[in-house]
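From the pipeline queue, job 12 of 40. The input is one protein chain; the requested action is below.

Action: predict structure.
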Amino acid sequence: MNNGHGTVLKGSLLVAGTSIGGGMLALPVLTSLGGFLPSIVVYLFCWLFMTCTGLLFVELSLSMDKGANLISMSQRTLGWGGKALSWILYLGLFYCLSVAYIVGCANLLSQLLNSRIPDWLAPIIVLLIFSPFVFVGTRLVGRLNIFLMAGLIISFFAFLILGLPFVKRELLAYHDWSKTLLALPIAFASFAYQGTVPTLVEYMGHDARRIRIAVCTGTSVTFIIYIIWQWLIQGIVPTFAPGGLAEALENGQNAVQPLRNFIDAPIVYAVGQGFAFFALVTSFFGVALGLMDFLADGLTIKKTTLGKLFLCALVFLPPLLIALTHPHVFLSALGYAGGYGCALLLGVFPILMAWEARYRTEMHPPRLLPGGKPLLILLLLFVICELIFEIRLTFNKF
């Protein structure tokens, strides 16, 4: 069946474009204590895991009615309890991401203005600038997103070319395997794209073979870009030097901010800041629109002018309050989003739903992920280990 017009290339770019975003700015900071090679191992496992769970989502989407989303999938396979839990997890994940992106954009604005405005004002200015686009809707944001994605791609390759001469091999040689797992929660969030699977399935005409290729290619592109980005940042910025990555981790900063302490070339830092802006804003729009559609559907709110004003208040006011009271929560918010939200909603849930759909219902989804029950058990054990580590990490903080 192939009623859609989406090519494998466009499908792959949809997956990669959804994954690559604000998480890139956090990854090199959180992996800095472990070093370059351990960080690549973490990315490898997260890449494989998120590719597998994405294919499980495709299986479920192909075996359900047109337009079925994660909530309806969970209700069909796990019952009303599963639906209620997926609602809670979805809101938790998207609000954590919203907080992270508002704080991240506010920090960039403060740096642009050389901290001439108070911390509390920057998040308000960010929302005054970007919330009208979300209010108008997907069509306007879609047009704007073309330019934002172009800026993201151009600034990334410009940063790669300009930063290349500053990379030092000795900085990449450092490793501490005991600190490897610190980045696992945000690595989960950074490979997340599963929310777009129903859209991808419709876009590519329910063609299982082409969708599987698009998912595998898109996640592979993401993996490669993350390795290049990691190599650049950790090759330029030392971990333990004053103003280095360890200090950025302690202060809740993104990966671009320490660059100016170690590169005597303002153009490189400026391009890095440009990349950070495009990465954060594209992610911010995607999360805000996704949350707005979810709330409109779940609360049956019509998108009239009054309805959209109410939805925008629900989308932006809770994360704004947190951003105002915790202006340095960028890394923590992304960590909670990945460590709990992504791990449960995009890790545990698809495994349990696929098990029910394959072995305990009459759905008979197409098998896009080989390995049967042993692989599903292995995937479940991996994500449970991640959750145990994240819980221990959370208790240690408090």
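Job complete. The chain has a mean pLDDT of 88.
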